Amino acid sequence: MAIYVVQARDNVDEIASGFGITAAEIIYANQLIYPYRLAVGQALWLPFAQDETIFGRGIFSNGYAYPFIDTEVLADSLPYLSSLSIFSYGFTAGGYLLGPNLADEPLIAAAYEQGTRPILTLTPFDEDGNFNNNLITQMLADAAARERLNRQLVQVMQQKGYLGVDVDFEYIAAADRDKFTAWVGELAEVMHANGFTISVALAPKTYAEQPGLLYEGQDYAALGALVDYVLLMTYEWGYTYSAPQPIAPLDWVRRVVEYAVTEIPPEKIDLGIANYAYDWTLPYVRGESKAESMGLVQAMQRAADVGAQIFFDDQAYSPYYNYVLGGVQHEVWFEDARSLSGKLALIDEFGLHGGGWWQIMRLFRAGWLTLAASFYINKL
């Protein structure tokens, strides 16, 4: 595997000739669009024959997908996934399970065809499909609701062929911390008794008593002891309403991992990986500015289209660029094969269970190729 950073006056044909590969291979791997413009500083994934993966071991790779994912994107992604977390089931305050708006059976069938484990994702979505963290408090306070939700989860999973459940709760109230842990223990007992796995998504804490609504309701050590594995949500430092900044800066991601492995065995930890970019307009105005979310291929294509040079922040290990369009200044932060390689190296360094991609709705083929060149993917 090679990652080549585009220089001034480079073109696809000359790069291909210089490395003894075809232009078609570069175009395919990097999803380049005719006339194949390149941005200075753009990282290109270049295919080379490898007898072994870089790190020489297998990991688990999970991707989150909504039921409306494009079938071709799903087909291209499943070979690189150990599990597919289908997003998302919700519930009522009384513990009645709510299914997704679209059928999930096609995704489950496609997953099995590729040796990928289908996972039911549970999120506090209400009957209108909105995130409602009040449901967490209400459900946790009602023993009958908890038992009903656990029972209905098992019934749906058995009926549809799910092999595990992923609990993706955010903004759990500090007062509900112990109740949440107790319920996860109850759910884990039920899941394991029926042959299913259970995982929990965790906010990216860097120390145990970290303040803030995102962090206070989750007990890393207690939850890690109960479930089969956890997902560290190591992204969204830069987010839709934040000031322009890296989405998943590697220095902060490392701090989260360094804390997590003191509380949870590393072989139970999946590292969250962002598969998206943000484009902010400047100047940033707190409470008013809203970044545009887009795919990684789109972010690199936009840089080439507007003639922007891509830079790389060595501390955050993240690419970014600025441009002006219609008199408006923009700043874009995203991920590429370089930044992904840094996160994959972190997985190997700490001996983690694997990685979890949020989300796989937009294809980033160079990312999958980087993953496959780095690790073997554990499958069914």
What does this structure look like?
Helix 1 (12-19) crosses helix 2, helix 6 (143-160) runs parallel beside helix 7 and helix 11 runs parallel beside helix 12 (365-374). This protein has 2 domains: 1-49, LysM domain (Membrane-bound Lytic Murein Transglycosylase D, Chain A); 58-276 and 337-377, Alpha-Beta Barrel (TIM Barrel). Helix content is 34%, strand content 23%. The chain has an 8-stranded parallel β-barrel, surrounded by 6 helices. The radius of gyration is 21 Å and the shape is globular. Strand 3 (58-65), helix 3 (71-77) and strand 4 (83-91) form a beta-alpha-beta unit. The model has no long low-confidence stretch (mean pLDDT 97). The chain has 380 residues and is an alpha/beta fold.
What share of the residues lie within helices?
A: 25-40%
The biggest beta sheet, please?
8 strands, parallel, barrel
Over the alpha carbons, how many angstroms does the gyration radius reach? 21 Å
Mean pLDDT: 97
CATH fold label of the largest domain: TIM Barrel
Whole-Å distance between the termini? 26 Å
Instruction: Report the total helices.
Output: 12
